Automatic annotation (TrEMBL):
PROSITE patterns: HTH_GNTR. SUPFAM superfamilies: GntR ligand-binding domain-like, Winged helix' DNA-binding domain. It holds the Pfam family GntR. This is GntR family transcriptional regulator. The keyword Transcription regulation applies. Keywords: DNA-binding, Transcription, Transcription regulation. The keyword Disulfide bond does not apply. Gene3D superfamilies: GntR ligand-binding domain-like, Winged helix-like DNA-binding domain superfamily/Winged helix DNA-binding domain.
């Protein structure tokens, strides 16, 4: 192993930390589509060298979150309307399948935990905390399906969805609606009705898609 290889190896954990910091910034809305990722600024902010920052940016590029633009460098990419539609259609397939499998595989304890998470989400209301709680709920439901390949595919998709900006759950009506939709999914899972669970989850994702598309159109008009 060369000294250069050894340095790369030792920097790998820092690269993972830098990557997670950038993901957290995306989730919190501190990074949005079109923002440039300047290695020097990020290295100073995270207290690391530029090497792990480059590694983190490469990982974000592999995730489909970052692109390189002429004269701008690494930039958080923007999604076209058709890409947003495609992402939500795939999300409906993946999470609908997860709900169907969870109806068969989830334990009663897991279902109770999902219900408790949804109650926390209801209590949070239309606040920034709703994003974390909603994500926690959907991850737990996918894990309850007991299919690691499905979980991995869903995780990859969720990272790409981060580009779209703030959660739609900051809208009071949407926050209430999402909780009610979760309840219908959970009722079907508890009844061990896989087909119904999948149907309700697909409906949930389709509503989220419509709200997101409306939000993007309004955002586009405000920028004109």
């Amino acid at each position: 192993m060369t000294m250069q290889d050894d340095a790369s190896f030792s920097d790998a954990p820092q690269g993972n930390v830098a990557y997670q910091h950038l993901i957290d910034d995306l989730r919190a809305g501190r990074l949005t589509a079109g923002d440039r990722l300047r290695e020097t600024e990020l290295a100073e902010r995270f207290g690391v060298s530029r090497t792990p920052i480059r590694e983190a940016i490469r990982q974000l590029e592999a995730d489909g979150i970052v692109t390189h633009l002429p004269r701008q460098g690494a930039t958080i990419r923007s999604l076209e309307y058709v890409e947003v539609m495609d992402l939500y259609e795939m999300r409906a397939v993946l999470e609908g399948t997860a709900a169907r499998l969870a109806a068969r595989a989830a334990s009663d304890i897991e279902i109770d935990e999902l219900c408790a998470m949804n109650e926390e989400l209801a209590a949070a209301g239309a606040t920034p905390e709703a994003f974390r709680l909603n994500r926690q709920f959907h991850i737990a439901l996918t894990n309850a399906a007991k299919n690691r390949f499905l979980a991995k595919s869903t995780q990859t998709l969720q990272k790409t969805l981060l580009i779209m900006g703030p959660t739609t759950l900051i809208q009071p009506e949407r926050a209430i609606g999402a909780v009610q939709e979760h309840i219908r999914v959970l009722d079907a899972i508890r009844a061990r009705d896989g087909a119904k669970a999948e149907q309700e989850m697909r409906k949930h994702i389709e509503v989220a898609q419509r709200v997101r598309m409306r939000q993007l159109r309004l955002q586009e008009r405000s920028e004109d």
